[in-house]
Specification:
14 helices, 3-stranded antiparallel β-sheet, alpha/beta
Length: about 425
């Protein structure tokens, strides 16, 4: 009997658990490894979930009609209109991504760097991830030219790549690939007959709302699956709800049938009470859009404050444009880090930050980067407060970085970086 695919704990969740243990032991920690959004639940959503608590029967495998209709409207407002019959809901977009890879089959192209679970999920479904680097500053989308080369080489070697995963906007870099790159990726996917799986869970957290996100579904609608959920935009990680938009094409309808069959064998149907609340959220009433806008402003202000500390220390942050992630590059500091701390790569740098300072980050290797890059991902989403009262105040504040607990966290980051690099903070973090 063949050995099962090796399974490792999600690097994000493992780092989170390690920091939680240290906090319970009384240590001072600064959790920046996890992208969980530390914000309270919108009261209107709590009320709808509570009111739906008696909904305890199995429902449609693909999700309730009300939810799928609301989701179709959500995408219609973003220029991606779709029939509700081609929407599939599941217990989190992470589960949907796994089911999609299983339904599509074949090997999977993943960008480098990319979210920790894409390559792991590919291995779990019996496929092999095919890593393709991004263009500088354009995270989440494999370089289209290198994609062509990688697929040609893989097929010549007898491999069977069938899908490419993209993230728009990106985790881990916090960047947004420009429309030209997304269009070229879509064109390459069409030429190579690849399904595009576009993870757009951070779409509503792009800081500049005047510049619409370019989805591959705009350029290759017949072969692009789009996934999203409420985990990031509305900070509902524990509610586990996600949705997928299948292409309106013969291939899309065939994939829809396969995806629903896979879902029927794994989760049967999404949790009914959560679907009721999610349908309300995807309908985007004013209180929901206002809540998301407030969280987007909060992310931007805190991310930019922390980015200023990295820059002051001599690191080079990526051009962050969305969500709560930073992916600083410490290559300019390679020599002093090696001389002062014996640090030669991102793994050693992350370990030093954790063990010496209690700051949790994830090294570039967790996101598939080869070699010895001096990069890591830092998430600011757990800096907003340790109580609902503080998190609510952060969400409502015009100047959240001035709040004492956030200011303390940002200053702590500056102190840690100064210790690492020997640098002095050159200026106070701007509040704007």
């Amino acid at each position: 009997m063949p050995e099962p695919a090796p399974v490792s704990m999600s690097a994000t969740l493992a780092a989170d658990e390690a920091l939680a243990r240290r906090r319970r032991a009384g240590e001072r920690v600064l959790p920046m490894a996890s992208g969980e959004i530390g914000l309270p639940v919108l009261p209107a959503l709590r009320e709808r979930l509570a009111a739906a608590a008696a909904e305890n029967a199995y429902g449609s495998v693909a999700g309730s009609h009300a939810l799928r209709t609301a989701v179709a409207g959500y995408w219609e407002r973003r220029g991606l209109g779709i029939d509700p019959g081609l929407v599939v809901a599941g217990p989190g977009s992470k589960a949907l991504l796994f089911a999609l890879l299983l339904a599509i089959g074949g090997d999977v192209i993943v960008p480098v760097p990319s979210w920790v679970s894409y390559a792991a999920q590919a291995r779990l479904v019996g496929a092999r991830p095919l890593p393709v680097p991004i263009l500088p500053g354009q995270g989440g989308v494999p370089d289209p030219e290198r994609l062509r080369e990688a697929v040609a080489g893989a097929r010549a070697a007898g491999r069977d790549p069938r899908a490419v995963v993209v993230t728009v906007p990106d985790n881990p870099t916090g960047t947004v690939a420009p429309a030209a790159t997304v269009r070229r990726l879509a064109e390459a996917a069409r030429e190579l007959d690849l399904v595009v799986v576009s993870d757009e869970i951070y779409r509503d957290l792009v800081y500049d709302t005047s510049a619409p996100v370019s989805s591959p579904a705009l350029y290759a609608p017949e072969r692009t699956v789009v996934t999203t959920g409420l985990t990031k935009s509305l900070a509902l990680g524990g509610w586990r709800t996600g949705v997928a938009r299948l292409p309106d094409s013969d291939a899309g309808r065939t994939l829809h049938t396969r995806l629903v069959a896979v879902a029927s064998q794994i989760w049967s149907s999404p949790p009914a009470p959560v679907q009721t609340a999610a349908a309300y959220a995807f309908g985007e009433p004013p209180e929901v859009t206002e809540h998301i806008a407030a969280s987007r402003r909060l992310h931007e202000k805190v991310v930019r404050a922390v980015a200023a500390r990295f820059t002051a220390a001599g690191a080079e942050p990526f051009p962050v444009a969305a969500a709560c992630y930073l992916y600083p590059d410490f290559e300019p500091l390679r020599e002093p880090l090696a001389r002062k701390h014996g640090v030669h790569d991102g793994d050693a740098l992350a370990l030093l930050l954790s063990e010496r300072h209690g700051v949790g980050v994830l090294p570039a290797s967790a996101f598939g980067e080869p070699g010895r890059p001096l990069r890591f991902r830092a998430a600011t989403s757990r800096l907003y407060g340790d109580t609902d009262e503080r998190r609510t105040a952060a969400l409502a504040s015009d100047d959240p970085v001035a709040l004492p607990w956030i200011r303390q966290a940002v200053d702590r980051i500056g102190e840690v970086l100064a210790d690492l690099t020997g640098a002095e903070a050159r200026a106070l973090v701007p509040h704007s």
